[in-house]
Amino acid sequence: MLGHHYTQSFLETAVASVNAGCNLELSYGMRNNVFMRIPQALAMGNITLQMLRDRVRPLFYTRMRLGEFDPPAMNPYSSLDLSVVQSPEHRNLSLEAAVKSFVLLKNVRGTLPLRAQDLSSQHFAVVGPFADNPRVLFGDYAPVPEPQYIYTPRRGLEMLGANVSFAAGCREPWCRWYSRAELVRVVGAADVVLVCLGTGVDVETEAKDRSDLSLPGHQLELLQDAVQ
Length: 228
Known about the structure:
The chain is mainly α. Helix content is 33%, strand content 6%.
């Protein structure tokens, strides 16, 4: 609310939020956030103790139902580790969800899906700043992934036994520096070309917007060179 000039201070924001029923803040940090002003607002009489109790009650009720205050031995989730979270069953389910969430806008001459029997007989070129950079594949508010479980387009094809050549063309999504020669060398010898472009959190995220929908930097040039 402060950022949108609805209020003029953190104190005023805390009062308005609590009075409106908000009981949880995505805070700026441990020392400087809006709800740290609640004691001051209470002392000034802007909010009441009963109101605070009403706001806190559902939070602690939820935490109790989740078992946060139980001894670890009583909580079956406290023993879960990567062997469970990244079990073959869970990874297969994640793969199924990823496959079923793709949106294919145009499939000229039935190009996709690629047939498994063709992977070893064809030469694939995987190009672009998103082709083999695990760091840029995750969106805003994504969890921090374990590197061994990240499959870039290049790594995924190689795991399937495909004959793959790779060229980033540009090393980061902004694509300020672009090597056309690197791209042409790899694409020219390929039967199938996969161009991996986009934005990612380096270019746009919460509170960091773009002024247009164009591909960043030289990415459009990279795409046009690959097609040509």
